[in-house]
Amino acid sequence: PKKCNLIGHWVNDLGSNMTISAVNGDGVFSGSYLTAVTVTTNEIKVSPLQGSLQRKNRKGQPTFGFTVNWSYSDSITVFTGQCFVDKDGKETLKTMWLLRSRMDNLENDWKATRVGTNIFTRVQSQKE
Ligand code: B9F
What we know:
Layout: E1 8-12, E2 17-23, E3 28-34, E4 47-53, E5 63-69, E6 76-85, E7 91-100, E8 113-122
Antiparallel strand pairs: 1-2, 1-8, 2-3, 3-4, 4-5, 5-6, 6-7, 7-8
The structure holds ligand B9F.
Ligand B9F binds at residues 12, 14, 16, 35, 37-40, 42, 70, 73, 75, 77, 97, 99, 101, 116, 118.
């Protein structure tokens, strides 16, 4: 079956855009993230992401994790997931995320973390 390649342009079920620009030999990768949604009226800006791809498994469909450090807020999101390839070679990233907001005090810590899922599919480049 076709190998999963994280490099490229992805869109998720919320319409957020993610670009993974490089993956090195150790599986360390970097890119950028533009969320389509926000909770507040904050201005949304492209934010950097850094992640790690599992390289131990030679059977394909690797697991990975990455962090998005929101450049316009004091919040941070971590994603973990797996890249699946179907029989037609179509890649899907199935992920779960935790969004941590900064709280002013320990009493508010209980409400600091949101959780959810996102499904990413590849945005085909014009020449493919
Ligand atoms: O909306 C978040 C934000 C941070 C401070 C004010 C607004 C940051 C963007 C999070 C985007 C999430 C979703 N987008 C996506 O593609 S990450 C997981 C989801 N997948 C309000 C106050 C603190 C946090 C939220 Fe904020």
